[in-house]
Structure formats: C-alpha cells, structure tokens
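A common beginner's mistake is to predict each chain separately and then try to dock the pieces by hand. The better habit, illustrated here, is to supply every component at once so that their relative placement is modeled jointly.
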Amino acid sequence: MDIFVVIPAYNEEKRIRQVLNDLSLLPYKIVVVDDASTDNTSEIVATYSNVALLRHKVNRDQGAALQTGNQYVLSKGADLIVHFDADGQFLSKEIADVIRPILEENYDIVFGSRFLDKKSDIPTLKKKVIFPLARLVNRVFLGIKTSDPQSGFRAMTREVAERINIEQDGKAHCSEIMAKAFEYKLKIKEVPITVIYHEFGQSMSHGFKILKDILFSKISK
Amino acid sequence: MMYLQIVVTIFIVFILLKLFLQKQKNKISLVAFLIWLLLWFAVLIVFWLPDSTTYLATWLGIGRGADLVVYISILAIFYMIFKIFVRLNKMDEEITKVVREDAIKNVKE
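With all components supplied together, the output reads:
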C-alpha cells in the first residue's frame, strides 16, 4: 500500500527541514508542493532525495497546492493520501492515528481535530470566538458537523481524492473538502490530534477571507 | 448647465474619436463598437435634452428623469462588476490549472 504525505509549503525555510527530517523516519512517500516561495524553501526540499518536489511558478495558495499534490500522487498510484503542514504544527507520529481508521475501519476520509481532547494549547481568542464562529458558518452554509472547522491535517483514500476536486485555491479548501465529504455521504471520522502553535497562524482577517471565498463560490457557480 | 454640457460634449467627442480609431484598427468587434456608440450618444442626449428622460421616467412610474438615469447607471455598473467578477474567477481557475500542469510536468523526484 502506497501512502503519500502531501505538504503544501509557502516560505517555510525555517521549519520545513525539521518536518522533513521527522517524516523521513516514517514509511511514507513525501511530496512537497512549493507554492512559489520567495525564500529558500525549495532549495532545502531539493536536498532530500526521498522527497518529490513540485513547484508552482506563481503563488496560488494552499488549496491549489494541495490539489496539485493530490493530482500528482494519484498519477503515482497513491492508495492513501495524507495532507500535512510544512510549518511543524502537526506531529508526524500522529499520521499513524489519522490513517488508522481508513486502514482498519474502512473509513473514507479522516480529519484531525484539535478539539477532541486537550492536547493542543489553543489561543483563547481562537478557542472562544473564531472557531465557534467558523463552526457556525460551516454548519449553516455547508452542512458540516465536525468539531474542528479548519482542520489541515487529514487523510483520504485514493477514491476520495479522485472524487473531491479542490476548487478553492485559498484557505477555504478546508471547509470545501469537509462540505464535499458530507455532500458525497462519505464515511467520515474525526480523530484527536495535537497542534503546536508557533505563532497565531491564521488571523481573524484570514477568517473573513475564508468566509468571503465560501460565499462567492456559492453565488458564482 | 451650459458649461457642463460643453465639457461633457468635448469629453464624449474625444471618446468617440478613440472608439472610431479602435474600430478602424479592428481592436473591437462591430457589436461592441455599436453598443458603445449608442451608449455615448445616449449620454449626449441626456445632457443636452435632460427632459427627454422625464418622458421615459414618468412612463415607468419614476418621478424624475435624473432618477431614472441614476437607477439605470447603478444597474449597469452592478452588472458590469458581476461580469468582471465572474471573468476574474475564471481567469484565476485557468492560471491555477496552467501552474498546476507545469508543476506536475517539472517535478523533481
């Protein structure tokens, strides 16, 4: 079974080395999609002979990078695809937890959630204001009922990746993937994961942009 | 009103000149040329004969001709913004597609 870890990266020269070092110890194939970084991200990635490097010539944002990665690994015969972050906020050893439901319990898609136990030290503003709002938007507009509204740590089968075409180039891809998973009535599971907050991550204005992208996609399609 | 009418007329004559030049160089289609021509003539008429819009306005149940012009303008602008928005979205999609194909073709394994 070929398990691919797809990592979208944009200006991650400070952190991606550690992420790749950790992942290299595990039995997964690694693909990094460099989203036209202006720093040395791709030079660093290129030094890893076990990592496939795809480069966007123009910055297209995270959702676009993930779809590029998906299409590439599908062409390489991936059976299972994991989406992982380049900034070291996820733990590579938890990939095993995220793929287990697919391997052992026949789930189609698994989302990592920061909210299922108390592992992650989430900033208060995020915990009390931003995430509850995001959950509400997800529920009302998209029919998503997950505990983590914006999970970037997920695993899916080949069939799911073939079916879910990520059309949201920006950060709204998280909601999009969840919405499609519910719409297609896939077998969905959430598992607890740890998130390490280096910085604040996505800010409130990012949240508004996600909201705008979701609403615009509703009226323009 | 006199001064404004003259300024607007000079402005429109200038635009019409550019429009004819563009048509001559085949930079715009005949349909686009005619639509713009009509539009600017309509603007001329509205500025020189402001009362002309009042007939249409009362017929449509709007009090003043000037109001009708504003309503129509706003509708036209919203429609154009929508068209531009759809177009931009499509361009975005196409750029992503090209960038993606290029990335997959030139993968470093």
